[in-house]
Amino acid sequence: MIDEIKNYLNSKRARQLADVRNIGLYIFGVVVLAIAWSGAKTVQNNYQLQKQIDQLKQENIVLGLNNDNTALQNEFYKTNEYLDLSARQDLGLAAPGEKVLLVPKSVAMNYVDPALLKNQVSSEQPQADSRPAYVRHLEDWRDFLLGRKLFGN
User: Fold this and answer.
1) pLDDT tens digits for 91-115?
2) How far is CA 67 from the centre of its chain?
3) Residue by residue, what is the 3-state secondary structure of the chain?
4) Contact 50, 43 (CB under 8 A)
5) Are the C-beta atoms of 94 and 88 separated by less than 8 Å?
6) Are the C-beta atoms of residues 116 and 123 closer than 8 Å to each other?
7) Distance (Å, rounded) from C-alpha 91 to C-alpha 100?
8) Whole-structure pTM value
9) How far is CA 82 from CA 71, 76, 89, 98, 114, in A?
């Protein structure tokens, strides 16, 4: 086996591969591969950056639309129509010549679906909680910190 290796190293083919001119070509090939690899990495980085730019542009467009929507809402709040609606809803006022009808709760509740009443009654009247106070307090704090119950919801 060792003799075969020695014979191969002394052969004409092995001397051609180890020639100085061929070694220069090998180095040139390695440099070309390194440049190609660097170019591929640059293209990949540019692609990733372009995706980020496109995403940020889309977010910018959405935020611009939200700003426009808010500006339109602000303009609506300045109108007389909004003042009229809010006076009717919040203050119970009426326009000149209109009559306000007050309907007793008992009469109004006759026209409400009974299934809705059961859910409302159970939510209005909290059931007695038999858990220890410290457990209720810990759960209330957990719910508050996680945003589950804000402002007595």
Assistant:
1) 877 778 888 777 888 888 888 887 7
2) 18
3) CHHHHHHHHCCHHHHHHCCHHHHHHHHHHHHHHHHHHHHHHHHHHHHHHHHHHHHHHHHHHHHHHHHHHHHHHHHHHCCHHHHHHHHHHHHCCCCCCCCCCCCCHHHHHCCCCHHHHHHHHHHHCCCCCCCCHHHHHHHHHHHHHCCCCCCCC
4) no
5) yes
6) no
7) 12
8) 0.43
9) 15, 7, 10, 18, 34
Query: What are the boundaries of each domain within the chain?
Result: 1-102, 103-153
pLDDT digits (tens, 9 = 90+) for 22-71: 888 889 999 999 999 999 999 999 999 999 999 999 999 999 999 999 99
Using CA atoms, how far apart are residues 84 and 94, in angstroms rounded to an integer?
9
Give me the residue label for tokens 């006022």: 93
Tracing tokens 């129509």 back to the chain, one arrives at: 81
| Side chain identity at residue 133, one-letter code | A
